[in-house]
């Protein structure tokens, strides 16, 4: 493991002293290991740093074992370079974690949305030192299996609270919107990501031609749509000031969600991580992204409407409790904006979902998946993905999403 030279006990000690305003803190005996695997976090290197921490408490010196997550930007590949340098995704995350989320959690009072940020550095390189959520009992779910109904219900409720608190914050501090005005999906989308989506779409269509459940007409529609889907998807996400808008997390999928479990193994809490793609706009972005990446196939077949209803009802209740001036959107309105943004869900399911469902044997860095202008097809040779995608393509065809209008 290649460790940064600056990642020392002294660095961690400095970060914690400043965060807690406690000069008595001393850090020693650090142990560093990678916190994620290939395919889990593409724009950062994540280190889990364990250490002995000594501090003064009530005239006594106390020593215990502690740990933090150190998140470091990596721009060794072109897409990472464009996201970090052109879109400033680390700058977005630093602003969100050091300012915006604190205000949102203050609004919600008893809801923890994220881990604590102890230290941030915007350049040379961009760094975040974050609370390690594992000692608090939080862990990631299996990205290949998909989330069951209990997990999904908890997530959509928390997404609703996230959206509602961001709305009140924007009502009171309109300039907050500027922190997340660019987003990843839209006119600011980096060239390499555009290429990645376009080539991924063509790879999905190529794979779909071998799926016998799809009609010849459906395949023809996919072929006609593959070159234009990116622009159609970006267009439906354009900010419309007269519509209902919130701060979206922007990347709500299994690996950016951590869960806590009770004594009987039942899920009891959920928290968000990774705020690099936060975006002010329609809440349909978060909902479409989550629904087309994270629930199990069983949940999507039998409980999709239930989850949308849970989101809307939690949004209504939270907005009422915290005192938002904006009128709460109805269930029919949420259904409408989701329908209007189905093309975005289609794009995500065609290009991101197969990567998210890939086995660890097929997991690669994003740039490495592009080979001479073609997409690495391994991720599409996944029976679970095929079953899920065939069902969704038939539904999108029935809805007219594939007609290219």
Summarize the structure.
InterPro entries: CHK_kinase-like, EcKL, Kinase-like_dom_sf. The protein is an alpha+beta fold.
Structural commentary:
Helix content is 43%, strand content 17%. The chain is an alpha+beta fold and 405 residues long. It has a five-stranded antiparallel beta sheet with strand order 1-2-3-5-4, with helices on both faces. Strand 8 (257-261) and strand 9 form a beta hairpin. Helix 11 (342-351) packs antiparallel against helix 13 (383-399). InterPro entries: CHK_kinase-like, EcKL, Kinase-like_dom_sf. It comes from Cotesia congregata (Parasitoid wasp). Residues 128-321 form the CHK kinase-like domain. This is CHK kinase-like domain-containing protein.
The major β-sheet equals:
5 strands, antiparallel
Cross-sheet strand order for the largest sheet: 1-2-3-5-4
- How much helix is in the residues? 40-55%
Distance between the termini: 50 Å
Gyration radius, in Å: 22 Å
What's the SSE pattern?
A: HEEEHHEEEHHHHEEEEHHHHHEEH
Secondary-structure content class: alpha+beta
Specify the overall morphology. Answer: globular
- Global mean pLDDT: 90
How many strand segments? 12
Low-confidence stretches: none
Percent in strands: 15-25%
* Count, helices: 13
Domain CHK kinase-like: 128-321
Pfam families: EcKL (PF02958)
InterPro entries: CHK_kinase-like (IPR015897), EcKL (IPR004119), Kinase-like_dom_sf (IPR011009)
Organism: Cotesia congregata (Parasitoid wasp)
